[in-house]
Design a protein that fits this description.
Layout (H helix, E strand, L loop, with lengths): L1 H7 L3 H11 L3 H28 L2 H18 L6 H20 L1 H9 L4 H52 L21 H5 L3 H4 L3 H19 L3 H7 L4 H28 L2 H21 L3 H14 L1 H15 L4 H30 L3 H27 L1
Keywords: Membrane, Transmembrane, Transmembrane helix, Transport
Protein name: Major facilitator superfamily permease
Membrane topology: Multi-pass membrane protein
Length: 383
Amino acid sequence: MIGFGLIVNTIGLFFGPISQEFHVGRASVALMTTLQNAAAAISLIFAGKIMEKVNLRWLLTGCFSVIALSMLTLSIAHSLIHFYIAWIIIGICQPIAITLSIPVLLSKWFNQKLGTVMGISLGLSAFGGTIFNPIIASVITKFGWRGGFIAEALLLGLILVPLAISIRPKPDEKHPAYGKVEKTKADLAVSGITLQEALKQPIFYALAFAMLALQFVSGSVQHISGHITNLGISPVLAASVVSGVMIGAAVGKISIGYFLDKLSPLWVLLAYSLFGVLGWSGQIFLTNPTLLTVSAFILGLGQGVCLVALPYLIQKQFGEKDYSNILSVINMLGAFAMSLSVYLVGLFFDQTHSYNLGWTINVIAYVLSFIAIFITLRKNKAE
């Protein structure tokens, strides 16, 4: 809730104020998140292996401490170079701190109902964005963007660092995982396959493409507040629209996890992909604040595909054996896409004075990613 809510979901609120103070385009400001996600993508190459070898309690504690300190230094930044360096450091820590730790820890602790608990957990991440967007927007309005970074650093340092110290990395005899492990034909799924074996299966590339396409979409969410203010709507209402995205994402992630445990994954993916298509289409054609908020809620529902359904399907398709490495590699592609997305959508705006081109790409991304997964999952079933 706090990690995703602050590190990922509120950064768009800073683009406008920083752009005005340094007299640069939004693409130049958004470049800091491009570098952040590029650093995260490179870090993901090694993150899975590091998480297998180092105690997660101390690894997470160190990562959150570094992120909080980096955020705090931004309150005294006087050049864009400072932003770029700080966000590169945050990007290096981010995969271990939030991107991989959530699905990896949950997959270790829940042998059953993994989709449901993953949905609840990542739904809370979106709920964090709902809470913190108006709070950080108010802090920025009263104390400026420097005060906003101080507030974020304090929340991360005073809450997440102590919580990280309390984490128990994996089950043991005294503290067993939830649910029984099936010892029948499911043994293969429980033990899983290696990354090298996964690379030989078409479903790996379908899931990787879907992650790439939908993380591009996720990156562009950071520009929604800028899109709303560009329509002549006040920053406070713009923050409300962003909160609509976060509420929708919270509902979408929680519900998609539940439905993945109960229904056919293909039907679930179809429904939530349609939410993504409808929601982003609404951002293109609507101008009324209320309707934009409804559209934002619907596109938020579609966010569940990327953050819940894809990690869930990766675990179900390839098992637990090499899950952190396989997820790390696929997430690496997504992080590169997100890094490009934030910059490119900002660049599209600088060139066209509109975000519609970016939103159109998002609609196409949902359609193509569903088609890729649909074809390969059907092929797996046929075999």
